[in-house]
Amino acid sequence: MYLIRERFFAIGDDFDVLDENGTKVYRVDGKAFSVRDKLVIEDPDGNEVATVHRHLVALRPTYEIRIGGEEAAEVRKKLFTPFRDKFTIDVPGHDDLTMKGDLLDHEYVIELDGDEVAAVSKRWLTVRDTYAVQLKSGVDPLLILCSVLALDLAMEREAEKHDKKQRDDEN
């Protein structure tokens, strides 16, 4: 299990991803995203291990994940999903994953061919403003964590657009 602070993107600070024992597993550079539309994920020694980069020109929210400098996946919102948000984690080959559930409130699962490989929840924790990512064995934790961070960024952008539209409508 990994722990991630909720709403990291609103603050823009660096933050740590912890394991269930409270040990720092990764550090995320939150400041870089506001400047370069790119999150940098580092190991505890400060070495870059992955990035999450927003595609600026895309029909729907799309984020590229690079692990070790290589493209590992694209996280994209599905266009037509009635009654719920759904994202695809498009990995090279045939092992695409799907994120579905209550994405905004961090209560969702990640599936591979209909089988749950990870679950994200705030309900498991008493720590405020934090959510947990529980992985099944055999799943690349860095890919899943980067996908969860990409989803957070996409959901925050949608919330900002919605808030801006509401303000514009009121004026």
How would you characterize the overall build of this protein?
It is globular, with a radius of gyration of 16 Å. With 171 residues, it is of the alpha+beta class. The mean pLDDT is 81. It is built from 3 helices and 12 strands; from the N terminus they run E-H-E-E-H-E-E-E-E-E-E-E-E-E-H. It is 23% helix and 42% strand. The protein has a 12-stranded antiparallel beta barrel. A hairpin with a 2-residue loop joins strand 10 and strand 11.
In short:
The chain is built from three helices and twelve strands, in the order βαββαβββββββββα. The chain has helices spanning 8-11, 31-36, 141-170, and strands at residues 2-5, 15-19, 24-29, 38-42, 48-54, 62-67, 70-77, 86-90, 97-102, 107-112, 115-121, 130-135.
What's the count of strands? 12
Tally of individual helices: 3
- What order do the helices and strands follow? EHEEHEEEEEEEEEH
Largest sheet properties: 12 strands, antiparallel, barrel
Oligomer: single chain
* Class from secondary-structure proportions: alpha+beta
> Per the principal axes of the C-alpha atoms, what is the gross shape?
globular
Lateral arrangement of strands in the main beta sheet: 1-2-3-4-5-6-7-8-9-10-11-12
Computed over alpha carbons, the radius of gyration is 16 Å
How many angstroms separate the termini? 45 Å
Poorly predicted spans: none
- Helix share bin: 10-25%
Per DSSP, what share of the residues sits in E-state strands of 2 or more residues? 35-45%
Rounded average pLDDT? 81
